[in-house]
Design brief:
With 505 residues, the protein is an alpha/beta fold. It folds into three domains: 1-148 and 278-298, no CATH class; 150-272, no CATH class; 313-485, Fe-S hydro-lyase, tartrate dehydratase beta-type, catalytic domain (fumarase). The protein has 14 helices and 20 strands. It has helices at residues 6-22, 26-38, 42-58, 86-102, 150-153, 166-181, 199-209, 221-235, 321-326, 344-356, 398-403, 417-426, 438-442, 482-504; strands at 2-3, 71-78, 82-83, 110-111, 118-119, 127-132, 140-148, 157-161, 189-196, 250-257, 265-272, 278-284, 291-294, 313-317, 332-341, 368-370, 408-411, 429-432, 445-452, 461-475. The strands form five sheets. A five-stranded mixed beta sheet has the order 6-2-7-12-13. A five-stranded mixed beta barrel has the order 15-16-17-18-20. A hairpin with an 8-residue loop joins strand 19 and strand 20 (461-475). Helix 1 packs parallel to helix 4 and helix 2 packs antiparallel against helix 3 (42-58). The longest helix is centred in the C-terminal third of the chain and has 23 residues, at 482-504. It is globular. The N and C termini lie far apart (66 Å). The model has no long low-confidence stretch (mean pLDDT 93). Bound molecules: iron/sulfur cluster (SF4). Residues 66, 68, 70, 149, 151-152, 185-186, 273-275, 387, 389, 435-436 line the site of iron/sulfur cluster (SF4). The site of iron/sulfur cluster has 15 residues, from helix 5.
Length: 505
């Protein structure tokens, strides 16, 4: 047995985390290109184009692809002669720490989640899954890193399926999980399914499946066919890029079946978002002569992110009643003016202050709030990557904020019915920015100043001036919402299909 030098482990993990945050692997780039070609609706095409433009910006190494640089999970596979111990684990954690601190990545890990919710400020601890593999040369260590954002992590599914429900029950559960997730995990997504007799193993199987390259099929041809069958079912949902409708809800589906108990199949569904961060390196050879081989990143060509569906409506912030009345669901808009950032923790504090009758850190009247937690700002830049976070999490605060004058919100994914009703009642608009296009969003920010709650780090309230930032009116002040519209489109398509089926069948 021999140990891999801990410095090599640390530098490899650091590099993998940085590559994951800033670059796509070529399978992801190819899937984006294919999706853009496949889409026929101008809006879906435009979103894919924007995501590809975003990737070209982030590949330059200054702005991570998405502002949520995720929870790092590290898979370590060992050849039979390679030793692994506590020192190796510490070297992995050090690699994660260095990447997140030195690489200007957002730190999202909290300790004591039930009580103090203290951010560890270096994104550790990472999750580590270690195993020996007979399939590997005996002197190799393979390290794979997944960086999973909270928006898609929150939508992970788990269910026990009975033998009677069988394969169809598994498929139905996967489809239901993705349908319920809708636009929240920033589709197109990659869906990975684990099946096992044990819940924890089922989840690990799903995560391991997510390490497969897009387009890589299971070795068992029956499972490979099942993967494609589920993929077709998902892409028929018309969720599409960002949940605005389209042919590409998922880039791929990976199924990893283990064994099962007589009475159940425990099924986990892992949803990975459009920026699919998985990176792999292999360390080969003995200590002094170890060499590290990284998977080749995608060669990302220059691409313009300006292929808009139509000339966007110009909107100057703060909003006024005339502008709000003129904004209709589905409009592309170009936003310029002042917005304030706030996420979960800042919302909680603002609402607590309102309830205590305290003076607020900024005037809510006619304000537009952007749900975002940017990556740290590099010296010389205005802001770090700053794409939207999932808006529905802020729904519990809508009522009080709309009552105190907020007129606009910006985020991603659908809103709850109560919030949409409140928007109609108070004459408010919800703009959707493109989830995962965080590097290109940064290019629209011309100034950035702290306003309050700096102790919250990425969640602090900041005043941003934006210029010509293209978003979509997802919910207008008349109560119309783009996500429901797409569901209606789908149901009328289904009715037409079923009528055709009746006629020919
Ligand atoms: S692309 Fe969307 S789901 Fe993925 S990390 Fe970014 S914000 Fe979260």
């Amino acid at each position: 047995m021999y140990k891999v030098d801990k410095r090599i482990i640390t530098s490899t993990v650091r590099e993998l985390c940085l590559r994951g945050a800033y670059t796509l692997s070529d399978d992801v780039w190819n899937a984006m290109t294919a999706a853009k070609l496949r889409e026929t609706e101008p809006r879906a095409k435009s979103i894919m184009n924007e995501l590809m433009g975003n990737a070209t910006i982030s590949a330059k190494g200054e702005y991570p692809t998405c502002q949520d640089t995720g929870v790092a999970t590290i898979f370590v596979e060992l050849g039979n002669d390679v030793a692994y111990n506590g020192e190796s684990a510490a070297a992995i954690q050090e690699g994660v720490r260095k990447a997140y601190v030195e690489g200007f990545l957002r730190k999202s890990i909290q300790m004591d989640p039930l009580y103090s919710q203290t951010n560890t400020r270096d994104n550790t601890p990472a999750n580590i899954v270690v195993g020996y593999s007979d399939d590997m040369p005996s002197d190799e260590m393979r390290i794979s890193v997944i960086q999973k954002g909270g928006g898609c992590g929150l939508l992970t599914g788990f269910k026990g399926i009975t033998p009677a429900q069988g394969k169809d029950g598994v498929k139905q559960f996967v489809v239901d999980t993705v349908r319920t997730a809708g636009g929240k995990p920033c589709p197109p997504v990659v869906v990975s399914v684990g099946i096992d007799s044990d819940g924890a193993q089922s989840m690990i199987r799903a995560q391991k499946a997510s390490l497969r390259r897009i387009g890589e099929r299971d070795k068992d041809p029956r499972v490979a066919a099942f993967e494609l069958e589920i993929l077709d079912a998902l892409n028929a949902l018309n969720i599409g890029p960002q949940g605005f409708g389209g042919k590409t809800t998922a880039y791929d589906v990976h199924v990893n079946q283990g064994h099962a108990h007589l009475v159940h199949r425990l099924v986990s569904v892992d949803i990975g978002c459009n920026c699919v961060r998985h990176q792999v390196a292999t360390i080969k050879g003995q200590r002094e002569k170890s060499q590290v081989f990284f998977e080749k990143p995608a060669e990302v060509p220059e691409i313009s992110a300006d292929e808009a569906t139509s000339e966007p409506k110009k909107v100057t912030l703060p909003l006024d009643d005339a502008q709000i009345a003129n904004l209709k669901m589905g409009d592309m808009v170009s936003l310029s003016g002042t917005i304030y950032t706030a996420r979960d923790a800042a919302h909680k504090r603002l609402v607590d202050m309102i309830e205590r009758g305290e003076e607020l850190p900024f005037d809510l009247k006619n304000a537009t709030i952007y749900y975002v937690g940017p990556t740290p700002t590099r010296p010389g830049n205005v802001i770090g990557s700053c794409g939207p976070t999932t808006s529905a999490r802020m729904d519990p605060y809508s009522k009080i904020l709309f009552e105190h004058g907020v007129k606009g919100t910006i985020g991603k994914g659908p809103r709850g019915q109560e919030t949409m009703d409140l928007m109609k009642e108070h004459g408010c608009v919800y703009f959707a920015a493109i989830g995962g296009a965080a590097a290109s969003a940064a290019a629209s920010v011309v100034s950035n100043e702290p306003v309050a709650f700096e102790d919250l780090g990425a969640e602090a309230i900041r005043k941003l001036e934006v210029k010509d930032w293209v978003c979509t009116v997802a919910v207008d002040s008349f109560g119309k919402n783009i996500f429901e519209q797409k569901a209606q489109d789908l149901s009328s398509q289904k009715q037409v299909q079923s009528q055709i089926q009746k006629l020919i069948g």
